[in-house]
Amino acid sequence: MTTTNDTIAAIATALAPSAIGILRLSGPESISVLDRVFTPAQGGPMSTRPDRTLVYGALRDRDGQILDYCLATISRAPHSYTGEDTAELQCHGSPAALVLALEALFAAGARQAQAGEFTRRAFLAGKLDLTRTEAIADLIHAESPAAVRQAAGQLGGALAGAIDEIYQSLTDLMAHFHAVLDYPDEDIQPFQAAEISAALTAAGDKLDRLAGSYRRGRALMEGIPCAIIGRPNAGKSTLFNSLLGYDRAIVTPIAGTTRDTVEERLNLGGVLLRLIDTAGLRDADDQVERLGVERSRAAVEQAELVLVVLDGSRSLTQEDLDVLALGLRAPRCVVILNKDDLPGQQAALPQLPGQMPVVHLSALTGDGVDQLELAMESLFPDDPGARPGTLLTNAQQALAAQRARQAVARAAQALGDGISPDAVLSDVEQALTALGELTGRVVREDVTARIFERFCVGK
């Protein structure tokens, strides 16, 4: 069993050859453990040095042999990331040397840190709330510029501030009510139903926006579901491979080669997509191909964006028009006239909705893909009024926000039905509990355990 009284150590960088490799320590013996393995080139041991000062010296293995000449720094409690004494070694990035250095730290009294244990200690010490904790994991895993900005804003406290604003308004309601109830002889303004109603309405509106932000936040972090559809041999798999930059899907001249959905993540035009290559849509006699077509239709139903790929070198067939009609049912759709490199009769499109992008390209040569990137930017523009970091990005956050919203709605309904204020405010208290789970004011072990499962060792 591990405790926060232990001194922990871990390699904080990837185990791959690199210019710099970092080892971290946290716990009451961090500085003394560092003294046992690191000797400054000049002056006394690290325990005599000031905080946050880089010191050059020799790093030794468990047998006292020199491993590297590197930099070390310390931060004493409580002025550190974890709130404990911490130390860091910045070495050359040889995986073998880093492993030997970590073994030396273990021999000197540290133990292996668990995944996310540094950040867990920072949370338990009150250095981070849960929204900032989750922002660290989001920033590590961010795959697009928008996701980076969202995570950085959340790490800076934007989401915590938005939640705290709602929390404080509901807390004021509770405090006012209890002051009136507990001190009836004091000159405290009594509750007015209109004031409670206005406060609950304002909190409900903010919670609606907060809970509603999850869809966009999830798309930023996980990618927008994007299905590529078309009839057989329209060039769907060729486009899929071209966008990815390698042959992920099988491409042959034989119609019906793709018989299942294939999914990959891709940053296109600054938008993170969960790109799904689908089987060609047609009436198939083959049972396996029929199953693939059914999965393709299911993928389209779940997609937020559909790329309709048409053979632009030929006249459109009824199958093409059926595929187009299916794509138009999606929330967003881009029509792609493929095979722009081939001579032939250019496909004539039927009337399309006014702002729907139409892109001419060659999936084979890559010409015109830049126009597809521009289409992505136009379909998913940045919201100039949105403050980076205020979106909910995972299901646990969304569920807590929804519970808070439901509790506030119940309180407003009870107030409208003439129920006594103490019964109304019991629902307000439930809303506060749900909001507390978002920031960590209310600590649930199962929630925090799931959060730290996303972290890697050394973070």
Account of the protein in words:
The protein folds into three domains: 8-113, Gyrase A, domain 2 (2-Layer Sandwich); 132-213 and 390-452, tRNA modification GTPase MnmE domain 2 (Four Helix Bundle (Hemerythrin (Met), subunit A), Up-down Bundle), CATH 1.20.120; 220-379, P-loop containing nucleotide triphosphate hydrolases (Rossmann fold, 3-Layer(aba) Sandwich). It contains 15 helices and 13 strands. It has helices at 30-37, 95-107, 117-124, 130-141, 145-155, 158-182, 193-212, 214-222, 236-244, 287-302, 318-327, 369-379, 395-416, 421-439, 445-452, and strands at 8-11, 18-26, 38-40, 55-60, 66-75, 86-93, 111-112, 224-229, 262-268, 271-277, 305-311, 332-338, 358-360. A hairpin with a 5-residue loop joins strand 4 (55-60) and strand 5. Helix 6 (158-182) runs antiparallel to helix 14 (421-439). The protein starts with 7 loop residues before the first strand and ends in a 7-residue tail after the last helix. Residues 249-259 have low confidence and may be disordered.
